[in-house]
Request: fold
Amino acid sequence: MTIGLLLSIIFMVLKLTGHIDWSWGIVFLPAIIEFVLSLAFTRSPFWWRGRVN
Reply:
C-alpha cells in the first residue's frame, strides 16, 4: 500500500471510532491527492504502479 492509502485508512478508523470529527472528504483527502498525482506523473492509477504490461 502507499502512504496516502495508509493515512486514509488510519483516518477512517479514527473517524469510525469517534476519535476525530472530520468530514469524510478530509478523511479520504490523502488517497485522493496521491491518486491525482500518480495519474499526473505516471498516467496510471497508483494500484498499477510496479506492474509489467
About this structure: Residues 31 and 38 are 10 Å apart (CA to CA). The helical segments are 3-16, 24-27, 29-42.
